[in-house]
Amino acid sequence: MKNILSCAATLIFILAAGFGQAAAENGGTAARVAVSADPRVELMSIIFRLAGNREYNRGAVRSYVEDVEKHFGPFKDHPAIKYAAELSKKNRVSYDAVMTMAVHTTDTVSLGERVPFSPKPGAMDDRWSPETARKFLSLARNFVKDTGFNEFYAAHEPLYELSARRMQDLLDKDAHLEWFDSFFGPAKAADFHVALGLLNGGGSYGPRVMLPNGREEIYSVIGVWRTDAEGKPVFPPGAVSVVVHEFIHSYTNPVVDRFINDLEKAGGRIYPLVAKQMEEQAYGKWQTMMYESINRACELRYNAAFYGPEAIKKAEDYEISRSFYWVPGLGSVLAEYDAKPRKYKDLAEFFPKITGYFNAYAGRAEADIAGYIEKDKAEAEKKRLAMENWREKGPKIVSMSPENGAANVPAGLKSISVTFDRPMSGGYSMVQIAGAERYPKAAGAAGYDEGKTVFSMPVELQPGREYILGVNSADYANFRSAEGIPLFPVKYTFKTKP
């Protein structure tokens, strides 16, 4: 056991130390950035998963989630977990604050401070203080030893390598990382890394570290939210925009910090108008809204550089759908900054124009946002009527086994079934909508009875677990009548006995 742990520890140290190979050695963003799994990211994700943070309980890779639960579940009362839960509750340490801690540690062997934590490093999230950070790391070191974390990581290296290779292939094919230098100017003494977080689901983050030697490390920590038929991670083309988004944060956030006082008046007027929508996206204050706004406007310029008008319009509509109503206009302002030949040295020199835009928008924000909301209401009513028509004409579920919402379902149940009011086409979509651990494990081939009115799926259930799945969804709707009308999506839940 001791020798195995020593080998695992050495492997983890080498992996962590090797990230610098992705650097742009002479300054600027490398046109090709290497992708890796990062043991520090996995360690912090596991700790805050066990502490109950929802954003780290969205793992899509079922086999990995089950391995994590089996290996680390018995340690839920470990002092490191209890303290993480306390930090989450009292200091709101969650989301990107967790990943900030990950990249500020040396490795998962010593968990040393890459930069002295006192005074607090400039790139360290404000939700950490030197005292809380050091206490947490002390407890986390014990957690690593007590749980055999490094052994666990080494045992799952093939999965990490597969995940990284698939993301690397996508970035090599579709990403335009050379854009960063052309838009922001060369980043001096900066190293760029894409790190995967297998427990993070759709959560992705953009932490950075300012090292004592003057170099900066910029990270795009990307979650895994989709799997293939074998349950292995896959990344859709849209994952490229996530990487771009997180890298942009490392460029724009420091500039926003320099001008944050200039944005306070506008931010204070705009934020209350969209506070509910922002809080639902974990943007809990006007400053965070400003970080996101400027990031998203820069992302529109990335789209403008490489994609056509249709894609740009789609991106603008997406920002409006997320209640960033002012971002398309800000993107248009940034077109002046982006014009060739360049009149502005960098984004900081142009920033007074950004401040001016926000101050002007703040004066009309209430009327502008109210107009969007009224338009949204009208669109919602049209959708409601269309949905009612769909519900009325489409196939309907007669019964489910277990019943929808059932509790105390025997864990030994071998199959779940859905009965329809008419013959179906033969396709089906039993959709994972709440993470892999809440989706029943398949235990055989699913299919219909002879009349195609009863669908059955063999399963292997676990005791004491709540299962949540979609019978069709907005994206997957293969439950269709013989005439081709899709079933209106139904959320299906049940709980097994302990």
Structure description:
The protein is of the alpha+beta class. The chain folds into three domains: 2-236, no CATH class; 259-389, no CATH class; 397-496, Immunoglobulin-like (Sandwich), CATH 2.60.40. It is 49% helix and 13% strand. It has helices at 2-17, 39-50, 62-72, 79-91, 96-103, 130-147, 149-155, 157-174, 179-184, 239-258, 260-279, 286-306, 309-321, 327-338, 347-393, and strands at 35-37, 190-197, 208-210, 216-223, 397-401, 406-409, 415-420, 430-432, 441-442, 447-448, 454-460, 466-471, 490-496. Strands 5, 7, 9, 10 and 11 form a five-stranded antiparallel β-sheet that branches. The protein has a four-stranded mixed β-sheet with strand order 1-2-4-3, sandwiched between helices. Strands 6-13-12-8 form a four-stranded mixed β-sheet, with no helix packed on it. It is globular. 37% of the residues are buried.
Annotation keywords:
498 residues; alpha+beta; Immunoglobulin-like; 3 domains; 5-stranded antiparallel sheet; 15 helices; 13 strands; 49% helix; globular; disordered N terminus
How many structural domains can be distinguished in the coordinates? 3
Measured as a percent range, the helix fraction is: 40-55%
What fraction strand? 5-15%
What is the N-to-C order of secondary-structure elements (H for helix, E for strand)? Answer: HEHHHHHHHHEEEHHHHHHEEEEEEEEE
- Protein structure class: alpha+beta
Count of discrete alpha- or pi-helical segments spanning 4 or more residues: 15
Radius of gyration: 25 Å
Q: Mean pLDDT, as a whole number?
A: 91
Q: What is the count of β-strands?
A: 13
Shape designation: globular
Low-confidence spans: pLDDT under 50, at least 5 residues? 1-28
**Largest beta-sheet characterization:** 5 strands, antiparallel
**End-to-end Cα distance:** 34 Å
